[in-house]
Structures are given as structure tokens and as C-alpha cells.
């Protein structure tokens, strides 16, 4: 599938900001499931300080802003050719070893809730068990926008019974790691059949299965990723793969607006 993507992020401040530094993971890379045909990334009001591939294989850019500006406009856009591989992303590559993806993180630490969830997973082969875990996460955590935030942990979202794709991915990863699998969080885009415009990027999980490699599971939609998905970044949890993060100097209040379009 040939997908045209536009992602616009605007930060506005109620007072001049003397300095800000943003880390951007907004540049997809070609791989087994996709080929990046063309892509551009710009930041109005900021300049690029560095670019590199991080330890998780993500294209990363550092952008700085200075001079008392009150707005930063970041625009990523391009065309990606995707392939349906039945959710199989490919063999493990990169600097980060597989054992690192078995470790717990502050957002993905198993407590009583996730432990009980894993105990309820039906017996079966590896992939069958993971699909069973995905079904349980989707059944027990309703998709509700605004019910959680970026700091909500897997246990907190599971206890609340509400969350978004980020929470579904965190709960699934925590459970999969408890079951003994390496797991990673993936951020990217999803082509939704009934509309082009979206309010946020998408997130799902990948688990490394012996003999298959990395396999993608989207609990929010109850499926393995197909050719409607575009991978951008991955890591142990949201903090390793978040599209934009940074620091700023000053006491200005920040307002964020995001516009995303994914069309065939």
C-alpha cells in the first residue's frame, strides 16, 4: 500500500522562551515491512544540531531554539510503501541486545493486575498465547481518549480499565515480558479506513518469538500490524520512542496542537 503522511506539531508559549532543545523521532526508516519513498522533516523557528541513529535503531534529530521565540512548528511528511507480512517485522537487528527488551521499566512493571492477567491467558503455542494476551488486554481496557496521560503506567491503566493505544501497548508488553518474551514499544502511523485526518499518531507492540523474529500486536484494534501501518520508532516503552520530547528554559506555559493525515 502506498501511504501519504503529514504530521504537524506546533508548540506555542505565552512568554518568550530563551532556549529549547527538542529530540525528534519523526523520520521512518526502510525495512522488511516498508520502503520510505520520500520524507522531509523541518522545524520552523529551530535549527538542527545533530542527527544520529540511536541504540534502538531510531533516526533521531536534535533541534534547538533560541532568541526569545514563542512558537515552534515541526512538520514531517512523505510517502511510504508498505507490505503486509502478517505482522512479522523481521529478525532482531541493532545495537540493543534482546535481553534488554525483557527488562521492566517504570511504565512497564508487572504488579498484581498484570500478573493476574497473564495467568488468565489460555495455553497454547507462543503466537497463540500472545494473541490470547492481546484479546484480554482489549477486553479489559476500553479505548477512552483522555483517560490517561504519558506518565500512566501499565498497572495504572489496567486498574482503571480505560486508556489509549499507548496504554494497551504498555500492558501487553508488561505481560509478554512476564511470560518470558522480549517486547518493544512501536510508535508510528495507522491508515484508518473511514478517515484521513487523525488527532494523534499510533502505537502498538512487537514481541520477539523464537523462529519468527519480531511479531507485531495492536491491542487497540485486536490485530497484528498489516500494510496500513508505518513504523517510525521503537524502544522499551513510550519514553524510548516518543515522537517529540525536549527541555526548555523559562517559566512560559506551553500549548500543543497536533495535526496528522494518513491517506492512501
UniProtKB/TrEMBL annotation:
Coiled coil: none annotated. Pfam families: Bact_transglu_N, Transglut_core. InterPro entries: Bac_transglu_N, Papain-like_cys_pep_sf, Transglutaminase-like. Residues 157-221 form the Transglutaminase-like domain. SUPFAM superfamilies: Cysteine proteinases. PANTHER family: BLR5614 PROTEIN-RELATED, SLL1049 PROTEIN. This is Transglutaminase. It comes from Nitratireductor pacificus pht-3B. The lineage of its organism: Bacteria, Pseudomonadati, Pseudomonadota, Alphaproteobacteria, Hyphomicrobiales.
Amino acid at each position: 500500500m502506498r501511504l501519504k503522511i503529514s504530521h504537524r506539531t506546533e508548540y506555542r508559549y505565552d512568554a518568550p522562551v530563551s532556549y529549547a532543545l527538542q529530540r525528534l523521532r519523526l523520520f521512518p526508516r526502510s525495512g522488511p515491512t516498508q520502503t520510505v519513498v520520500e520524507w522531509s522533516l523541518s522545524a520552523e523557528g529551530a535549527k538542527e544540531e545533530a542527527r544520529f541513529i540511536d541504540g534502538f535503531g531510531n533516526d533521531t534529530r536534535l533541534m534547538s531554539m533560541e532568541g526569545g521565540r514563542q512558537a515552534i512548528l515541526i512538520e514531517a511528511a512523505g510517502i511510504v510503501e508498505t507490505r503486509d507480512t502478517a505482522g512479522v517485522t523481521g529478525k532482531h537487528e541493532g545495537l540493543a541486545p534482546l535481553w534488554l527488551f525483557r527488562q521492566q521499566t517504570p511504565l512497564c512493571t508487572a504488579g498484581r493486575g498484570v500478573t493476574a492477567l497473564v495467568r488468565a491467558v489460555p495455553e497454547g503455542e507462543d503466537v497463540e498465547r500472545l494473541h490470547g494476551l492481546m484479546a484480554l488486554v482489549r477486553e479489559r481496557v476500553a479505548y477512552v481518549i483522555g483517560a490517561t496521560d504519558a506518565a500512566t503506567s501499565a498497572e495504572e491503566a489496567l486498574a482503571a480499565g480505560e486508556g489509549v493505544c499507548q496504554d494497551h501497548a504498555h500492558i501487553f508488553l508488561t505481560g509478554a515480558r512476564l511470560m518470558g518474551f522480549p517486547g518493544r514499544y512501536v510508535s508510528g502511523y495507522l491508515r484508518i479506513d473511514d478517515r484521513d485526518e487523525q488527532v494523534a499518531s499510533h502505537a502498538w507492540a512487537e514481541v520477539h518469538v523464537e523462529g519468527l523474529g519480531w511479531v507485531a500486536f495492536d491491542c487497540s484494534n485486536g490485530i497484528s500490524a498489516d500494510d496500513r501501518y508505518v513504523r517510525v520508532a521503537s524502544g522499551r516503552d513510550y519514553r524510548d520512542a516518543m515522537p517529540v520530547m525536549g527541555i526548555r528554559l523559562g517559566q512560559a506555559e506551553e500549548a500543543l496542537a497536533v495535526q496528522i493525515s494518513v491517506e492512501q
